[in-house]
Amino acid sequence: GEFDAASSDYAAEAGGTGADGAADDEGLFSLFDDAEDSEGVESAPVTAAASTGTTDEKKFEWWGSLTASGGISFQMFPEGSTSPFAFMSNTLGFTAKPFDDMVVRGSFYSEFPEFNFALTSLYFDYIMNDLLYITAGKTGTSWGNSRIFDTNLLDDEGDGKVVNPYADETATGNRFDAILTLPIWKGEIQGVGMYAIGEEISKDNLSVAAKIQYPFGPVSVELFGRKWATSDAYYMHPAVGASLTTDIFRNHVNLWGMTHFSPDDIKDLDFKPGISRFVGGVSRVIETNAWGKFGIAAEYQLTYDPDKAEGDKLTHDVGVTFGWSHALGSPFSPAVR
């Protein structure tokens, strides 16, 4: 369990949230996230360009938040253990509107007791002819809509790992993003160029990704792909995939799949899937006036590794997480996860 003391945000809009995020799920699961501009897994500030995050008259605003957590962590398997913990994080940012069709955003993050300090974001949103959305800078943009297993295609280190709600805010490193988003009726096409800033300027430091998302009634379908930078320390073959999200009787359902492939196999007309993953999950949030907010998420992950030398090439993982929080009519909120 843990005991949170969190101040209210003041003008705390720091970019938008991805179109795939479920509003009901976001409220509960973000209670346990330290990042101010985080929806747990997905955040796409480019889609917020039409909303300045300021009032009609204001051209510049400061915003911020302070979160402190303390409690006890219980580990039951494989060996039982109990350990206390304490954590405090602070985010300070700004939103500026130098022109009617441009917004500039930035944020600075610090945490204790690790004493980590970082410029977490500094980018601009620009709307061209009310049609094309352009974002450039250090954005920390991520894709994915899972709660337990990491499906963020833009996270080099996240392939197959469990999502860590207390992840280091500086994980994106010195990465410059250029994002183009083209709305298509109710959906959108988005392209992302990610440049890893190094000692030398080279095209080998550029990674590119693209996705197309469109809702068909209550079902949102997304097709995506990525090509990794040649110099990337986590270099992998290109990957393509698809995801499907919907709500069924107030249960948020997410299906996601991705496979890597060798470009040489495509040239030789001999396609062989490389490392592949499938993640399927369901989550539910229930709010009550008397007992607070409850949430539960369960996910299944299937991993196929054709290059695995020993053992089964298929790996199965199952994860379950639950949460409860109550505001108690004050800034102090007891919470259990």
Task: List the SSEs and their pairings.
Blueprint: E1 2-6, H1 23-29, E2 60-75, E3 81-99, E4 102-112, E5 116-128, E6 132-138, E7 175-184, E8 187-196, E9 206-216, E10 219-227, E11 239-248, E12 251-260, H2 263-267, E13 276-288, E14 292-304, E15 314-325, E16 332-336
Antiparallel strand pairs: 1-2, 1-16, 2-3, 3-4, 4-5, 5-6, 6-7, 7-8, 8-9, 9-10, 10-11, 11-12, 12-13, 13-14, 14-15, 15-16
Name some characteristics of this structure.
337 residues, globular, 16 strands, 2 helices
The chain-level structural class is mainly beta
**What is the gyration radius calculated from CA atoms?**
21 Å
What's the overall average pLDDT, rounded?
A: 76
Shape: globular
Specify the biggest β-sheet: 16 strands, antiparallel, barrel
Provide the succession of SSEs.
EHEEEEEEEEEEEHEEEE
Q: First CA to last CA: what distance?
A: 6 Å
* Low-confidence runs: 1-28, 30-55, 164-172
Largest beta sheet: strand ordering? 1-2-3-4-5-6-7-8-9-10-11-12-13-14-15-16
Structural account:
- The protein is mainly beta and 337 residues long.
- Helices cover 4% and strands 52% of the residues.
- The protein contains 2 helices and 16 strands.
- The longest helix has 7 residues.
- The chain is globular, with a radius of gyration of 21 Å.
